[in-house]
Amino acid sequence: MVEVIERIVRSTRDLPAESLAELCAQAGWVPIGATVEPFPRRLGHGNLLAAIFSEGAEDFMEFIFEMIPPDLGRAEFVDAVNGDYSPQIDRFHRIRDEVLELLSVEIAFDELSEVREDSVDFVESGCWRIVRGYLSIGVAHADEDSPVLLLARLRQS
């Protein structure tokens, strides 16, 4: 994941979705599920999942570290929601620290005071300006019908 982030933010221009998929493939990510378009938008690498999204003219990536399906009969989901997401927040802190440590070897970045992500309902998160991109990492949960996610979102420019 860090290799993909480094390549994206070091690009001299915003990369289209097809180029993002190509970078992922070069880094060992493999398509997951059916590929309807000429390139995959859902990818996997070990236990990590990634998705390539497009909003208007902007293409961006999301990396999912953990997803707890919305099921009120599932103890893990109920514990997360009723326990203020404590285990997920602890895991977020560990992942954040690991990712930033790996990135800091090659790239300088600045922490931002607020998350530049309006379309994600973060319970707890952080956001960093990294060269030509913005990396948001956190625990997200919109409502009882949506999964609890531990994710990172990378936007270009």
Structural write-up:
This protein has one domain. The chain has an eight-stranded antiparallel β-sheet with strand order 1-2-3-4-8-7-6-5. It is globular. It contains four helices and eight strands, in the order ααββββααββββ. Helix content is 29%, strand content 35%. The two termini are 18 Å apart.
Are there runs of 5+ residues with pLDDT below 50, and where? Answer: none
Query: Which overall shape is indicated by the principal axes computed on the Cα atoms?
Result: globular
Distance between the termini: 18 Å
Number of helices: 4
Q: Mean pLDDT score, rounded?
A: 92
What count of domains describes the coordinates? 1
The share of residues in extended strands comes to: 35-45%
The profile of the biggest β sheet is: 8 strands, antiparallel
* Rg over C-alpha atoms, rounded to the nearest angstrom: 16 Å
Helix content: 25-40%
Q: Supply the helix-strand structural class.
A: alpha+beta
Count of distinct strands: 8
**Series of H and E elements:** HHEEEEHHEEEE
Task: Provide the spatial order of strands within the biggest beta sheet.
Answer: 1-2-3-4-8-7-6-5
Blueprint of the fold:
Blueprint (H helix, E strand, L loop, with lengths): L1 H9 L6 H10 L3 E2 L10 E4 L2 E8 L2 E11 L6 H8 L3 H19 L4 E4 L9 E9 L2 E8 L7 E9 L1
Antiparallel strand pairs: 1-2, 2-3, 3-4, 4-8, 5-6, 6-7, 7-8
